[in-house]
Amino acid sequence: RYDREVNNGHRSAIKKILEGNALPSLMMVLCISAIYSHPDVHKLEAVGTDENENSIKNKSLLAAKRNMPAHIELTDGWYALEASLDVALSEQLQKRKLFIGQKLRIWGASLCGWTGPVSFHEASGTVKLMVHVNGSYRARWDDPLGFCKHVGPPLAFKCIKASGGRVPRTLVGVARIYPVLYKERLPDGSSIVRSERMERKALQLYHQRVSKIAEDIMSEQDENCASTDDSEEGAKICKMLEQAAEPEVMMAGLTSEQMISFSSYQAKQKVC
Predict the structure, then answer these.
(1) Which of 29, 135, 161, 216 has its CA 20 to 30 A from that of 256?
(2) pTM, entire model
């Protein structure tokens, strides 16, 4: 081990996690090397409850004991790290389903009390690994310790706990595909629910209305621009005729469009 760790630079899973070079949420196989706290609820339930005060105290103590997380020590073969179990795993520990020497395949764990890269000796007693039941599996006795290359088996729906952390993997079957519905909220507060076909039809009518409004605006703008151009051209012709020495000759040389612009300009001037 000295040759591998010091000379060759090999590091175990826990050391990589503590030094910040690996995520604690990765799939890994660890072994239970010690059990620090073991909430024994059965002893509390067996305590006599003759008096009311003692009964209330025992019930409150029992509830607090059940919610108290258990603490164990997990090792990767080289280094060990204290781990805090959630309520469901604490119950499994209480039922003796977790024991020293058992290997666990853990996924989705997190570090508590870790602020930055630390060595194993600095992290002792301050950094804990938070383990959840949804990401914990029993590992085979011959599974190698450390990080896993493959994801574990999918978790069945009946095994998923509501407060058991994230679910690493599961299998689902599509029983039915519902059609897509569209909901439009109207200005008066009411709403209309349409199917996909009706939504396409409503969208087509909407685009037609938008195109019609845009065409009307463009045509109105073109008319305004045309009238503005005619007025400007008529004003120029009128000014040129006023400055010309022989306006009759100049009038004879105007085109029909120029005559129309000049006539419309004169009509507007008379109205004004």
Answers:
(1) 216
(2) 0.57
Helix, strand or coil for residue 75?
Answer: strand
In eight-state DSSP terms, residue 155 is P
β pairing state of 80-85 and 128-131: parallel
| β-pair partners for 80 | 75
Q: What is the DSSP string of 113-125?
A: S--S---HHHHTT
Task: Give 15's Cβ-side CA count (13 Å radius).
Answer: 10
Hey, what amino acid is at 182? Answer: Y
Say how far apart CA 82 and CA 29 lie, in whole Å.
15
Digit-coded pLDDT (tens) for 59-111? 555 445 556 778 899 999 888 899 989 888 888 888 888 899 999 999 988 88
Work out the percent of the chain whose per-residue pLDDT is above 90. 11
Q: Is 89 exposed, middle or buried (0-12, 13-18, 19+ CB in 10 A)?
A: buried
CA 226 from centroid of its chain's CA atoms = 55
What are the tokens at 153?
């088996």
Give the position of tokens 């000796």. 121
Cα torsion 234, 236, 238, 240 to 10°: value is -150
Q: Measured at the alpha carbon of residue 271, what is the angle toward residues 269 and 272, in degrees to the nearest 5?
A: 65
Does 2-159 carry CATH code 3.30.160.20? no
What pLDDT shows up at residue 38?
61
Radius of gyration of the chain (CA): 42
> β-strand 28-37 against 146-147: which pairing, if any?
antiparallel
Asked if 65 contacts 45 with a C-beta cutoff of 8 angstroms, the reply is: no
